[in-house]
Write a structure and sequence with these properties.
With 97 residues, this protein is mainly α. It starts with a helix and ends with a helix. The protein has helices at residues 4-15, 19-29, 33-39, 44-55, 72-79, 92-96, and strands at 63-66, 85-88.
Length: 97
């Protein structure tokens, strides 16, 4: 996690005190978020997907992806047999990505 943009954006997200501040940080980070987090070794979505697939029957729906960000996990859920996923995120910029 040595990437300057990633570190700066993550620090800004943790420092945000109000919902509008959090949304603004992620709105400005949306364009590079997936690549930044992947380069930093962030694997939580992959782990969560594996756990969900192990314990929830395929086709169980609908699912809510709260804190969906750019929707990457929603794409993976559809591929692995969970086609109906509703996405929710505080950042419209992330959802628009």
């Amino acid at each position: 996690m040595t990437d300057g943009k990633h570190s700066g954006s993550l620090s800004a997200a943790y420092a945000a005190k109000r919902p509008d501040e959090v949304a603004a940080v992620y709105d400005s980070w949306a364009e590079t978020y997936d690549a930044d987090m992947s380069a930093a070794g962030y694997r939580h979505p992959t782990i969560c997907l594996a756990l969900l697939a192990r314990h929830l029957p395929r086709g169980a729906e609908p699912l809510l992806d709260a804190g969906a960000g750019t929707g990457l996990i929603g794409e993976w859920l559809a591929i692995t047999g969970y086609p109906r996923v509703e996405a929710l995120d505080i950042s419209q910029g992330m959802l628009d990505k």
